[in-house]
Amino acid sequence: MVAIAFHQTIGTLHSQGFLNNSGFHHEFGNASVKLIPRGSKVNVGLLKRGSCNSGKRSFAVIQASTAHTSVSGPVSSPSSNSTNGSPKKSNEIALILIRHGESLWNEKNLFTGCVDVPLTRKGVEEALEAGMRISNIPIDMIYTSALIRSQMTAMLAMTQHRRKKVPIIMHNESEQAKAWSQIYSEDTKRQSIPVIAAWQLNERMYGELQGLNKQETADRYGKEQVHEWRRSYDIPPPNGESLEMCAERAVAYFREHIEPQLLSGKHIMIAAHGNSLRSIIMYLDKLTSQEVISLELSTGIPMLYIFKEGKFIRRGSPIGPAEAGVYAYTKSLAQYRQKLDDMLH
Fold first, then answer.
1. Annotated catalytic sites, by residue?
2. Cα dihedral angle (98, 104, 106, 108), rounded to 10 degrees?
3. pTM greater than 0.85
């Protein structure tokens, strides 16, 4: 299947004019990089939508695995060039959404919400698997929630990226924090990816349910009541947030802080939680309040959107034969993948 998808994709890329012999030229800081494709060689591997302000730490469904290798030379995103801060209309910007891997309280079947618990061993493996799936997608900035399970997921995923840039959490909570975390090497900055942690991307705050066992809670209050708390759009659990309330903060943050970065040509990854990501997907896919409550996101599965000409186009999850479809219709990602491959030969 993978071999068939590979050959089909090569033909599609050629027929649509995505591959040629002209190579690719890009300015990378003070250096100029020119990459010439080796014939028409391309490796094609796949992609498939209560406020608690912790502020101290700022740490999506599909499965599969892909082979990956490292790249030490400078490779940059082809669509990051812009004039006067505005990207060209033909630019295709990547937006990756990942729900964190399994947490210790997921494993124990407890309501977690804004309680800050880390990943299980399985969660770590899910994060690494997610990283392999997005290892050929350009990433310029990362946004996470303020909770460690999403931060761990983002950091572990980036260890698998072929570009080998280092994710660095930005500490802007005080002038001293900014001064003490300053990087003084321009070359090191170019090899880094800023990570912004925001409590607005936190999981829905489950109020008095946090820490309770889900089955025991259903036995106590009844399955219908617990289902209403968990899956309705506008009914919150006791002293907690409804999905509507979570969406208000998460979508407002996305529109105010993340969308402008996409408009400027930056490729973005967001590592967050089931409900904060459902809220953002509701905005991206223009879902109704009834449609979003049936949306399920598995832990550790990345979703890819292409932002082009002011519109978000869902591409799915980057892994296996499906990756062929992603690259066949997304020219800049095909070019980026080809550059990564060329750097290895």
1. 100, 203
2. 170
3. no
